[in-house]
Design a protein that fits this description.
This protein is of the alpha+beta class. It has a domain at 147-333. The chain has nine helices and eight strands. It has helices at 20-28, 30-40, 69-96, 111-119, 163-168, 170-173, 212-223, 247-256, 272-278, and strands spanning 122-127, 189-194, 266-268, 290-298, 301-305, 316-319, 326-327, 331-333. Strands 1-2-8-3 form a four-stranded antiparallel sheet. A four-stranded mixed sheet has the order 6-5-4-7. A hairpin with a 2-residue loop joins strand 4 (290-298) and strand 5. Residues 1-5, 10-28 and 39-51 have low confidence and may be disordered.
Length: 339
């Protein structure tokens, strides 16, 4: 998810990667990988014998010797958590050009769950509570939202001029997912983000990579009538925007992601500013499909964004019908914890 262009946006090289240093090296570069290596207290090479062969693999690390299995598991879990926090600290520094205090991971984010989420293409990230004002510049924020930031400056929503209209629209004003945040603020929370790149448009037949889990959920929802019939193939496109108002839709996704017993975990669409920040890098800004957002722009007309033909992450428009060129990605927001 973290690239040289935008460490908050692009997906990891593989959603199944579990080696943090390799993850950082692939996405942020050798310099940041070296910094992470120091933070994590790890060596890039295993000790070798005179023949150059690895040795010591069978020996239990000193810090685990004499401990119970439960104590060992706790120590190993803390290492995993610290690796994620260190990775996020580096990514935020690269994107914003400044450091942030990062709180502990959600209590329910166990190592088992983290591994399962990665296998399914989802990754934990920390998003700071910060106002993405138009006149502010950050190293990783190359494509600000709104019509005047698109190449031709002729089509779409002029985001920063329409903030009050968006905030006051009844559909948005009564949406609890939008309460407590201005339209330009990031949430200041740990999130679980779908890391798959956005596909290019192929006449409505396009699919997201390695999408067995979401496809299966959508196909079942179509069978029960919760999803409109046009979207029965489960490819994420052609979903009517009204479907995203149905609690059954989000409950099914929450269950599939093992979130049912996590109090306060919210599954929803990305808000406009979140979609913009996520959409900065390759695989998002440069692909020719849209994705639905949480906000409405007019009554009955939900916002979608991201098509590279109109300006990628900067471009946003609105509509009220199923569309073969518009997909979606679920975003999970965890309750805030103090650092």
């Amino acid at each position: 998810m973290h690239t040289l262009e935008n460490p908050l946006a692009a997906p990891p090289a593989s959603p199944r990667s579990t080696d943090t240093l390799a993850f950082i090296q692939n996405q942020l570069g050798d310099k940041d990988a070296a910094q992470a290596e120091k933070l994590l207290g790890k060596q890039s090479e295993k000790p070798t014998d005179a023949k150059g062969e690895n040795w010591g693999d069978e020996e239990e690390p000193q810090d685990l010797q004499g401990l119970s299995d439960e104590e060992k598991q706790s120590i190993e879990a803390q290492k995993v958590f610290q690796e994620i926090i260190s990775r996020e600290s580096l990514a935020l520094q690269k994107f914003f050009g400044r450091s942030f205090e990062i709180p502990p991971l959600p209590e329910e984010a166990t190592t088992e769950r983290i591994a399962e989420w990665r296998e399914q293409g989802f990754e934990l990230q920390y998003w700071p509570r910060i106002n993405m004002e138009e006149n502010t510049n950050y190293p990783g924020w190359k494509h600000k939202p709104g019509k005047r930031h698109t190449p031709n400056q002729q089509h779409g929503i002029e985001f920063y001029d329409k903030l009050q209209q968006i905030q006051d629209l009844p559909e948005n004003a009564k949406n609890p997912h939008l309460h407590g945040l201005s339209p330009t603020e990031l949430p200041g929370a740990w999130v679980l983000r779908d890391t798959r790149p956005k596909p290019n448009y192929t006449n409505g037949t396009q699919t997201y990579e390695d999408d067995v889990l979401i496809q299966g959920v959508l196909q079942k929802l179509a069978q029960t009538g919760i999803l409109n019939s046009e979207a029965a193939d489960g490819t994420r496109s052609k979903i009517h925007p009204n479907v995203f108002q149905k609690k059954e839709f989000w409950k099914a996704l929450a269950s599939a992601l093992d979130l049912d017993d996590i109090p306060g975990a919210t599954v929803r669409l990305p808000r406009l500013i979140e979609a913009n920040v996520m959409g900065q890098g390759p695989g998002f800004h440069d692909t020719s499909t849209y994705e639905w957002c949480e906000e409405y722009y007019q009554s009955g007309k939900r916002v979608f964004s991201g098509n590279s033909d109109g300006g990628g992450a900067s471009y946003m428009n609105w509509g009220g019908n199923a569309n073969g060129n518009v997909g979606f990605r679920p975003l999970i927001i965890f309750p805030s914890r103090r650092a």
